[in-house]
Write a structure and sequence with these properties.
By secondary structure, this protein is an all-alpha fold. The chain has three helices and no strands.
Amino acid sequence: MANEKITREKGERPSKEIRQIRNLLILLALKAGATSHEVDYATGMGAPNIRAMFPIKGKKRRAK
């Protein structure tokens, strides 16, 4: 890994590991209360794409 190229060519997709780290950071931000629009602002991915990648289920209703 020491000899790996760190920079990438324009238009080239990030490596799998970089995408996994990005997704974990997005998930962490969403769990901490960030909105998909805030994550979009930080990443430039688009709020609809973020909502599609990380669907958030509605809150469960409590049984009476």
